[in-house]
Amino acid sequence: MATESNKSIALKFLDCMVRGDIDQLVGMISNDCRLWVSGDLANSGAFEGEAVARQFRRTSGSHDRLFKGVLRLDIGMVTAEEDRVCVEAASDAELVEGGTYQNAFHFIFVIRDDKVIEFKEYMDTKHVFDRIASTRSIAGMRAPNLTSVSSSLVSQ
Q1: How many Å apart are CA 96 and CA 110, to the nearest integer?
Q2: Where are the domains of the chain?
Q3: Which terminal Cβ of the chain has fewer Cβ within 10 Å, N or C?
């Protein structure tokens, strides 16, 4: 069943990200992959193609500079439909600069032919800003999170 395979790929991707196995993680993305990270922090924005691999190498490869010991990512609900996988997660780690990093995440994957073609990372950006000083250089304009709009709901 494709949805179970896609769930497995998404969880393996997150495992590589947490362990800092960037070579394997980059090997799991398509050449035209799209990445979107919430907020307007230094690590936020929209990236495509080769810029995705560069962004993962820049951010996921810095765990030893950010965290003392291990970074744990607890996985909550995992839901898959067609080529999409959604993962609810929470992190827990001690920070090198002091304090703890306990963030909430929602990841959305689009997977085709066993490759991640789109990855979106929603998180509590205020927690990141408050806890990790290196993210405080504001990147500027927020990148739109929707690649297409299927419908709109409007207040009365």
Answers
A1: 33
A2: 2-135
A3: C
CATH 3.10.450.50 assigned to domain 2-135? The reply is yes
**Chain position carrying tokens 């709009």:** 149
Structure tokens at 49: 């193609």
What is the separation, in whole angstroms, between the first and last Cα of the chain?
Answer: 43
Q: What are phi and psi of 14, to 5 degrees?
A: -65, -35
Residue 58, amino acid: R
Residue 134: other Cβ atoms inside 10 A: 14
The pLDDT of residue 135 = 74
User: Rounded distance, CA 28 to CA 85, Å?
Assistant: 15
pLDDT-based confidence at 133, cuts 50/70/90?
confident
How far is the CA of 92 from the CAs of 15, 84, 88, 136, in angstroms? 14, 26, 14, 20
Tell me which range, 58-72, 109-123, 141-155, is most confidently predicted by mean pLDDT.
Answer: 109-123
